[in-house]
Amino acid sequence: MKIALSAAVAALALMAAMPAGAQEKQSRLDEVLARGHLVMGTGSTNAPWHFKSADDKLQGFDVDMGRIVAKALFGDPDKIEYVNQSSDARIPNITTDKVDLTCQFMTVTGERAQQIAFTIPYYREGVGLMLKGDSKYADYAALKGAGSGVTISVLQNVYAEAMVHAALPEAKVDQYESVDLIYQALESGRADAVATDQSSLAWYMKQNPDRYKDAGYGWNPQTYACGVKRGDQDWLNFVNTALHEAMTGVEFDFYANSYKTWFGKELAPPQIGFPVEYK
Amino acid sequence: MELVTFFETLWLARIPILKGIGVTVSISVLAILVGTILGIGVGLALTYGNRPLRWLVRGYTDFIRGTPVLVLVLASYYVLGTIGIDLGPFQAGVLALAVFCSSHVGEIVRGALQSIPRGQTEAAKAIGLTFPQTFAYVLGPQALRQVLPAWVNTAAEMVKASTLLSIIGVAELLLRTQELISRTFMSLEFYFFAGFLYFVVNYGIERFGRYVERKTSIPS
Questions:
Q1: Confidence class of residue A6 from pLDDT cuts 50, 70 and 90?
Q2: Do B186 and A56 touch (CB under 8 A)?
Q3: Subcellular localization, per the record (chain B) (predicted)?
Q4: Is residue A189 classed as helix, strand or coil in its secondary structure?
Q5: Are the C-beta atoms of B35 and B99 separated by less than 8 Å?
Q6: Using a CB-CB distance cutoff of 8 angstroms, which residues of chain A are in contact with residue B16?
Q7: pLDDT tens-digit readout, B18-31
Q8: Which residues of A touch B185 (CB under 8 A)?
Q9: Who contacts A141 (Cβ-Cβ below 8 Å, separation ≥6)?
């Protein structure tokens, strides 16, 4: 009895000695709920991920991921304050608390995961090939079969040549410095196909229906996930739950609608019964 | 055909572009104004301050002038936040540009003041003017004529440096242009157009400088 008492006193003393903030440290989840809106970091210059509509409203797939989280928080997807940031500012804005959450086509890498906490993935990006609708090449196999006879237009990048050659080892690679130019090269016949992110291709084909076709091959996988500050498991769990249920549960229609809007493809609803995650 | 599409797109995007110009102009005007006021103080301290003050201000100008504007912008957005001064992107950007501007204006002012012969200060003293009076009636007006051409140069630099604020998410003209390009894929056209708008703003500053130069020139 006496020992138990002195142990309790020691524990109390220890608690009192700890800084007040440490024992009452709230999760960001409570902070966001008390504030009444989510502060989300994203960009404004990359369709279909995060860009401005003609009437100057921020939209895109990344933006919709934030709206899913806001809906889970407040039942209202519009309760978001956007922090407009360049790609370089994604990680600093998380670590310096400028944002609660960043969804900005962020590729998951080991290096980044040391600085911020990644949520579960919400999309898998890859490189694809786009042909003109009336191209003499039917698909990827035909392009590969033509060997050095095909020219591929691609965005200028140190790895661009190696990236194309991973799929088409003999193809001629023309590098251009902006996105509109790689499409123009295809349009004008200087290139037989465009190689770039499949999401960009999907968006471009949706904007220009029936003029182009996908060669039906993807490579260079990259995982896109949102990021939060490290060390707040409660908040990370919440965002994960919101995203997870959007891809597999009650908010599936929200996710599927967004997917259809930005990538032009219908998603099959998750199978009922045994959870898809454990297949 | 191409040109018609361009003007149609431009017309649809007029509001965001005008907002962008508004933000670019307000950043520039604020930074130039605050930077000039601070810069005059810096110039005075460099020329007439006592030794400790002079060393302090010399350290400040050398440090700021030797740092890229981008670093200053990032520092005032991120580093100030960690010591409890949490500025929004717009305020942080204006602060960084104003500080940068002040170091340049300070050097320009110092150069102008030092080019005035010492005899003028002595003469002012001899007829009993206090230092503020000497500056307002004798040194200031002469220095102003020397300062103007270099000041126009610095002011134009500030307008161009304002594009760096797009990095921390201030929706100024360049970021607005990039937003427009990401939707329309018309990069050459709209970058060219943005370049033209920057030229117009800077041309306005140059005309303003000329106007003040004319007003303050000694009638011959």
A1: low
A2: no
A3: Cell inner membrane; Cell membrane
A4: coil
A5: yes
A6: 52, 56
A7: 999 999 999 999 99
A8: 179-180, 183
A9: none
Virtual torsion, Cα A259, A261, A267, A270, nearest 10 deg: 60
Domains of chain B: 2-216 (1.10.3720.10)
Predicted pLDDT of residue A127 = 95
Q: Which residue of A has its CA nearest to B75?
A: A92
| 3 state DSSP class of A250 | coil
Give the number of other Cβ atoms within 10 Å of residue A82's Cβ: 18
Question: In this predicted model, which residue has the larger pLDDT, A54 or A21?
Answer: A54
Tokens coding B64: 């700021």
* Count of all residues that appear for chain A in the document: 279
Query: How would you write A94-147 as a 3-class SS string?
Result: HHCCCCCEECCCCECCHHHHCCCEEEEEEEEEEEEEEEECCCCCCCHHHHHHCH
Q: Which domains does chain A have, with CATH numbers?
A: 27-116+229-278 (3.40.190.10), 125-221 (3.40.190.10)
Whole-number pLDDT of residue A22: 46
Of B60, B35, B14, the residue nearest B162 (C-alpha): B35
- A84 CA: distance to closest CA in chain B (Å): 5
Question: Residue ranges of chain B with pLDDT lower than 50?
Answer: none
* pLDDT classification of A16: cutoffs 50, 70, 90: very low
Q: Closest Cα to residue B115, out of B47, B62, B164?
A: B47
Q: How many residues does chain B have?
A: 220
What are the pLDDT digits (tens) for A41-98?
999 988 899 999 988 999 999 999 999 999 999 999 999 999 999 988 999 999 999 9
pTM over 0.80: yes
Q: Write down the number of H helices and E strands in chain B.
A: 11, 0
Q: What is the Cα–Cα distance from B120 to B116, expressed in whole angstroms?
A: 7
Q: Looking at residue A2, what is its pLDDT?
A: 47
> How many other C-beta atoms can be found within 10 angstroms of the C-beta atom of residue A223?
15
Inform me whether the pLDDT recorded for A10 exceeds 70. no
Q: Chain A: residue nearest B12 by CA? A: A54
Closest CB from B12, B81, B170 relative to A54? B12
- Between B15, B82, B182, which is nearest A96 by CB? B82
- Structure-token pair, residue A135: 């191209």
Q: Which helix (H) or strand (E) holds B199?
A: helix B187-216
